[in-house]
Structure formats: C-alpha cells, structure tokens
Specification:
323 residues, mainly alpha, flat
C-alpha cells in the first residue's frame, strides 16, 4: 500500500467493526451479496445466454443464471468478510452488516463459502463442467485475486481485477453452447474495458474515503490528473471493442448502430472529465454524470445484443454468425 498508506489519516488496523450483539437478519445476509452489483451480473448473464446461438431448456437456463447469481453473491460475501475493517473506516460502507456490528465475520465467511461452493456444484451437475470451471474462476478472481491481492497493493487493481465482473455473459454463453468462441470472449472484453472508466469515475468523487483507509486507488496514488487521462484512454479503447461483435459478423446493424451511438455518447462525456482539472465549485457534476451513464451504457448495449439475436431468430434481419 506504500504511497496510499502515507496519505491515510487512519490505519485500517486501527479501525475495527463493532462487535455483533444480536443475530443477523435475512436482510443482512442479502446485503452481503451486493444486490446492486448482482443486478448487473444477472442481467449480463441472461444476455449472454439469450444471445448465444442455439437453445437451452428454460429450467436449465434459469438454473444457470441462478448458479451465476449465487456465485457472484458468494464472492461478494467473502469480499465483505475480508474487508470488514476497511469498510468500517469508509463513510460509504460503514453501515454494512459487518462494520456496523449486525453480523459476525465468521457468519459472512461461511455464508460466502457455502454460496460459492454450491453454485459451482449446481452449474457442473446441471449445465456442464466447462461453465462450472468458468464460474469457479470468476469467484476466485474476485474474492482472492482482486479482493485479497490486487486491491490493497496496486492502483491498477481495477484494470486487472475487472475480469472478475466480465465472466457472467461468457458463462451464460457457454451454458448454451458448451464452448468458448470469439463472440463470448468479446462480451468478456467489453466489460473488462468498461470497468476502469466506470469505476475510476466513481473513485474521483470517493477519493477521500479510499485515502482514509489506505486503499491505493489511482486517484489516491497517482492523482486526479492521471486518473482522468486513464478514464479517457480506456473509453477510447472501449469503443472499438464494443463495436467488434458487429464488425466480425456476430451481430447485425441493429446492435452495431446502438454500440456506435452509445460509444460516441460515452466518449463525449469522458472528454471533459479527461481533459480538465477538478473544479470544486461544480461538485464534480461531470464525473458523476459519466459514472451514471456508464451503468446505462452496459445495460442498453447488452440489451441491444439480445434484441439483435431475437430479430435474427425471427428472420427479420441478416443474422451474421447467427444465420
């Protein structure tokens, strides 16, 4: 944590969650799964499943999405368990079940392990072991590689760790086809490239929280100027990746036109963020706009992928690789 630690006003070791004085409620266990993040995980998993060539029985499709959701929830619970001390020192996270004292850390750990192991077992038995292997990799990637290793050690944690959130559409696709091809890898790459500008936009106006607990997020370690340039650079790199499914013939112009329009808008919002210094008087309005738009960007982009697939299946458009 080197540089970041030097900027912290309170050491994470000095910040401890309040002791649990009563049994946790079901709502606290639900909170451990990070429901807002789960929404995006489930949505992109469903999109990967629906966009894949071929069909899957609805019960098996539901089972695959359920397993992905359980795996994401399990890894999120392990993230809560590992970062309870850090969460206690951040205003944004201080009211979570562990730092607020509503739950014992051991309960969060056991809940996370149970969900993670059960999800992989269900995926393997019901769907296939390639999909189960990818789900296990996603869980380990987020709970171990990102949470325990990358996040406290490098300002590039979001770049490298972005792969953890990129697995759901890949796994959904594999659940239908049983194989890894160029298209699901592009879906993985879209989320991978989208994560840095999305999260760093948030980190710009949450900088003080990360500095307080010694997490070396890029704005804390390298400063706002470097973070802004990185946001713009990754937005530029994201655009061709987002359009690539159309360029390789994997989708029609329907998805292609949406991808182009969304990427142009994303870039238009990223340019003023990337090319200027912070102005305190505007309360970082443009950074917050970019962060909010980035969420809509991914939902609409993956929604367009499904619409494209449905139209192709109905024979209403030229289907590229779906023909």
């Amino acid at each position: 944590m080197n540089t970041a630690a030097s900027t912290a006003t309170t050491s994470p070791a000095q910040i401890k969650p309040a002791p649990s004085s009563q049994p946790a409620e079901w709502r606290d266990f639900f909170t451990l799964t990070k429901p807002r993040v789960m929404t995006l995980v489930i949505f992109t998993a469903i999109c990967g499943l629906l966009a894949a060539p071929g069909t899957i029985h609805p019960v098996l499709g539901f089972t695959a999405v359920l397993a992905i959701a359980m795996g994401a929830g399990g890894s999120a619970a392990l993230n809560h368990w590992w970062e309870a001390d850090l969460d206690a020192g951040m205003k944004r996270t201080a009211n979570r079940p562990l730092p607020s004292g509503r739950m014992r850390r051991e309960d969060a750990r056991d809940f996370g392990i149970f969900l993670s192991a059960t999800s992989v077992a269900i995926m393997g038995v019901a769907i296939g072991w390639l999909a189960a292997l990818m789900l296990a990799a996603a869980i380990v990637y987020y709970a171990v590689i990102y949470t325990m290793w990358l996040k406290p050690r490098t300002p590039q944690n979001i770049v490298i760790g972005g792969g953890s959130g990129a697995f759901p559409p890949l796994i959904g696709w594999i659940a239908v086809t049983g194989e890894i091809t160029a298209m699901p890898m592009l879906l993985f790459a879209i989320i991978f490239m989208w994560t840095p500008p999305h999260f760093w936009a948030l980190a710009l106006f949450m900088k003080s929280d990360y500095a307080k607990v010694g997490i070396p997020m890029l704005p804390v370690v390298a400063g706002e100027g470097a973070t802004r340039r990185q946001i713009l650079a990754y937005t530029v790199l994201l655009a061709p990746v987002a359009v690539a499914p159309w360029l390789i013939g994997g989708t029609s112009w329907v998805y292609g036109s949406v991808a182009v329009a969304l990427s142009v808008l994303f870039l238009a919002l990223a340019i003023p963020v990337g090319l200027r210094e912070r102005r305190d008087e505007d309360n970082m309005r443009e950074e917050k706009m970019l962060f909010k738009f980035s969420i809509y960007y991914l939902f609409v982009l993956f929604g367009a992928l499904v619409v494209d697939r449905v139209l192709a299946a109905q024979g209403l458009i030229s289907a590229g690789m779906f023909a």
